[in-house]
Amino acid sequence: MTTVAPRDPAELQIADLWRETIGIPEVGVHDDFFEVGGHSLLAISVVVGIRRLFGVDVTAGQLLEANTIAKLAEIVRGGNPGEAPSPLARLRHGDPELAPVYGLPPVSGTTLVYVRLMQALPRNRPFWALQSVGLQPGEQPLTTVEDVAADFITRARKVHPAGKPWHLVGYSMGGVYAYEIAKQLHAAGEPVGLVGLLDTRPTADTGGDEDYALNALLRRGLKLDLDLDEVRAMEPDARAELLLTEAVAAGTVPADFDRDRLLRMVDMYRYNLDALVGYDPAGYPGTVTLYRVTDHAMEPVLLPRDLDWTRRAGELVVHDVPGHHFSMIEPGQVETIAALVDAATTTEEDK
């Protein structure tokens, strides 16, 4: 296919941003961001760059859906409309006759964790991902698992093909949201397909630590080895500056990541973990599928293979998958999960 060069100032600036961010010599306006070398961390850099160049807030979810320069330029030309973008982002259009796969947000709230899984699935499979409400400026976060599930169902009904089963996957805490959504859909008489939990624990034990969310952000989200007592004792502004500096140095956020975005990330960890602590999953009579890692290096103690889901579902299916909790969704590992998800969501009707 012929590469189409940028055709106006907006496309030219976005193309320059892509070349600089990804490190490639040339890019066409219809090239897919994730097929020319982009990934989740670089996507954040592009979002920040677009804000810097055009004064327009583009969400990570919009970038996943508008994954070409031409589509992004349309958003930029439209400026910042009064209506906030939906947190439910379409990562891939696929075949409209097939039931979509929906990815539910982990504790970080971002949709970017599903890019690699989406890429590893067949290209005809529609894929949507939900970003936690509260990550964007001015959004009022949802504070219970039940409310997040109900809000997702309301949004997804507008795009879900009538009569098709609901296929739900959730990485880490996202699996709890998938479980509760399945429970609410079943109660409403909707056909539920795959309820896939990617190494998800049903509950959170804070151990009485009031800064459990901050600790999770440091260790899991930003992957920083800082003294928690020193960090918690700092004033909020100084703490934010320290976390931003250290995270940039560690490469877990891009160099132009801004303080406000980091603070919203901190808040999102707290909201999601508080919701998890206050939730007791029970009452779903259908089948739940757990994708359980075989490398337990990230677990402080060895957890049971079923992660305590057996008693919480009508039937539990457990698949052992390679990697540890963080690497399971990275290239080289996620392909195993994708093959299992594809098999579970493909019916005779789809073949």
UniProtKB/TrEMBL annotation:
<dbReference type="Pfam" id="PF00975">
    <property type="entry name" value="Thioesterase"/>
</dbReference>
<dbReference type="Pfam" id="PF00550">
    <property type="entry name" value="PP-binding"/>
</dbReference>
<dbReference type="GO" id="GO:0047527">
    <property type="term" value="F:2,3-dihydroxybenzoate-serine ligase activity"/>
</dbReference>
<dbReference type="GO" id="GO:0005829">
    <property type="term" value="C:cytosol"/>
</dbReference>
<dbReference type="InterPro" id="IPR029058">
    <property type="entry name" value="AB_hydrolase_fold"/>
</dbReference>
<dbReference type="InterPro" id="IPR001031">
    <property type="entry name" value="Thioesterase"/>
</dbReference>
<dbReference type="InterPro" id="IPR009081">
    <property type="entry name" value="PP-bd_ACP"/>
</dbReference>
<dbReference type="GO" id="GO:0031177">
    <property type="term" value="F:phosphopantetheine binding"/>
</dbReference>
<dbReference type="GO" id="GO:0009239">
    <property type="term" value="P:enterobactin biosynthetic process"/>
</dbReference>
<feature type="domain" description="Carrier">
    <location>
        <begin position="5"/>
        <end position="80"/>
    </location>
</feature>
<dbReference type="InterPro" id="IPR036736">
    <property type="entry name" value="ACP-like_sf"/>
</dbReference>
<keyword id="KW-0596">Phosphopantetheine</keyword>
<keyword id="KW-0597">Phosphoprotein</keyword>
<dbReference type="InterPro" id="IPR020806">
    <property type="entry name" value="PKS_PP-bd"/>
</dbReference>
<dbReference type="GO" id="GO:0009366">
    <property type="term" value="C:enterobactin synthetase complex"/>
</dbReference>
<dbReference type="InterPro" id="IPR020802">
    <property type="entry name" value="TesA-like"/>
</dbReference>
<dbReference type="GO" id="GO:0043041">
    <property type="term" value="P:amino acid activation for nonribosomal peptide biosynthetic process"/>
</dbReference>
<dbReference type="GO" id="GO:0072330">
    <property type="term" value="P:monocarboxylic acid biosynthetic process"/>
</dbReference>
<protein>
    <submittedName>
        <fullName>Thioesterase domain-containing protein/acyl carrier protein</fullName>
    </submittedName>
</protein>
